[in-house]
Specification:
The chain has about 350 residues and is of the alpha+beta class. The chain is built from 4 helices and 16 strands. Helix 1 packs antiparallel against helix 4 and helix 2 crosses helix 4. The protein is elongated. The two termini are about 15 Å apart. The protein binds calcium ion.
Amino acid sequence: MTFQSSSSGSLTSLLVLLSAVLAIFASDSLQVEKKFQQREMNSDAIVPLRSHSIYAPYVDSNLQNKFWDFGADAIVDTNRHIRLTQDRPSQMGWLWSRLPLSAENYEVVFEFSIDGKASHLSGDGLAMWLTTERAKPGPVFGNMNYFTGLGIFFDTYPNSRHTYTFPRISVMMGNGVEAYENKKDGARQEIAGCSIDFRRTKVATKARLTHVKGVYTELAIHHKEWDQWETCFMRDNITMPLNPYLGFTALTGDVSDNHDIVSVQSHNIVYKPRSAEQLARDRAAIFAADKSTASTSDKSYQKYDESGQARGKGGGLIAGLFHLIYKLVKWSLILAVIAAILFAGLKYQKQQNAKRF
Ligand SMILES: [Ca+2]
């Protein structure tokens, strides 16, 4: 009787150990499988964010929107767009989410249109915002200066000379103290950017901002051909403000354009909790797959890539350490199972021998 119970006991512990090892191997192969999937596709869920999406007819029967506010010179055409500014001088308009964006990882796709009578001299441009303040009109594409958070500027008017061409997409992370220098098109504040012609495009003009915390931030533009997205920038070191409001503003001065928002579609990209090691691995996989983007000759890119790389090295060291610990734990578990099997086998043989006599 004692033999049977001790045998079933060791059998149970053996099974537990065996399943633990199997689980480790299974998670390993799952990670390998995930590497072949694309970017946010390997998330655990993608949830539409109604509070940060807007499309025709934009307003309800009271000419309001539950989740969005618009103001200044902005006009709603319920069939077509929210016109932030008309093609007239000295206009300014805004569209802001009423609620902050609480998602950690998200994708914001917006369709817009910048168009006007002028073929060359037009401006000033449109901005997308993820900032801690909202609806405070000012000189930065119709929004306040000294903002806190991310500003993405679709700048159509060069206020000064640059080595790059216009229209220009320029990105600034405001800290509430540093000013956006309009006279220099924010060149000194630019943390990322690209020169893409997004004015008067043949196909729908769209921008897609994807942010996966601790992994990457990417801006892609749809402007040349249907379903073709061009990466404007991709970074691993952009820290977004906590719970920002999502906004769009536009401004005209001496020169002008129609600046329209056609639609905004936001999604929450949901992941199960991931370890620092997992994040580092995801980051490495994404940037390895996107080497072509990083090798652009754009000056601002290179400036940024250097610091990005420096950060990557530190991350790699920690990731390496985690990997080593992970491997040590894995192999000690495997050895423990082998030892347990041997031990159980020996015990069983001993007891069989004892039974014989
Ligand atoms: Ca400008």
